[in-house]
Amino acid sequence: MHHGLHYGLLVMGAPYSSPAPHSALRFAHAIIARGHKIAGVFFYHDGVHNGASLMAPPQDELNLHEAWRELNQQHAIPLDICIAAALRRGLMSESEAQRHGQPAFNVAPPFELTGLGQLLDLQQRADRFITFA
Amino acid sequence: MATPDALLVVIRHAPHSSNWLREGLDAALVAAAFGQPVHLLFMGQGIMALLKEQGSGAPGQKATLPIIDMLEMYDIDALWVSEEALQGLRIRQDLLVDGITPVPAQEIPMLFQQHAKILNF
User: Fold this and answer.
1) Range of the domain at B105
2) Mean pLDDT, contiguous 10-residue spans, chain B (121 residues)
3) For residue A93, which of A82, A63, A8 has the smallest C-alpha distance?
4) What is the C-alpha separation between A16 and A33, in angstroms, rounded?
5) What was the pLDDT predicted at A31?
6) Could you report the per-residue pLDDT of A48-102, keeping only the tens digit for each?
């Protein structure tokens, strides 16, 4: 039995405007099927939009937000979003919405708002670190 | 020379056309603040980030040059610039900020090879 590698994924493309999230998801499922592990996914730049829980594409289209949630549910993969990049683009969690006096929030677990230190930590821990942009 | 732990941040986008440059530099600064050695490589339109006469862009857009000027304070002193990009965009080295090192095209693959950690912006 071979030991699988630990992969870290960095996603910097927005859903439905860049192929990056779709490619990253397909890549994630492919490497898991080959016995490797995903140490985490980090969303930065326009990739933070993947965390938007209010995403509602037509029913015959893949809901990328749901697809990330399923990946997390099936394989317990952390989904971290850069907080600075998210707030700048109008994505916030319930606690951030309270802090900023906003009436609504659109980021919820399993997505977590976190700092760029988490990206560097993921890169440090991963045997392979792949960017999707 | 690259230390095994060094992070290579590659900048390929010009200021103001997108947030790539700002967010790339943010990643470089955070890594440096965490004590990681950081090297910067500017390629393609990314070299325009180093133009010393650049202004602050459209109203409401923050200038990025102050971040470039701050890099030294974070011990980021390797500013590599693709020679090919300089020639391609006809930008003379004296138009760029001090302390840059032009890198010939044939040496760029070596830079990538020397770094186990790379972030592309």
Assistant:
1) 7-120
2) 81 93 97 97 97 83 90 95 98 96 97 96 97
3) A82
4) 25
5) 97
6) 999 999 999 999 999 999 999 999 999 999 999 999 999 999 999 999 999 999 9
CB contact under 8 A, B20 and A45: yes
User: Span A15-132: which CATH code?
Assistant: 3.40.1260.10
The DSSP string of A13-24 is S-TTT-SHHHHH
Question: Among residues 28-67 of chain A, which lie with CB inside 8 Å of chain B?
Answer: 44-45
Give the DSSP letter string of B48-107: GGGBTT----STTPPPSHHHHHHGGGGT--EEEEEHHHHHHTT--GGGBPTTEEEE-GGG
Q: What is the mean pLDDT of residues A35-43?
A: 98
In this complex, is the C-beta atom of A77 within 8 Å of any C-beta atom belonging to chain B? Answer: no
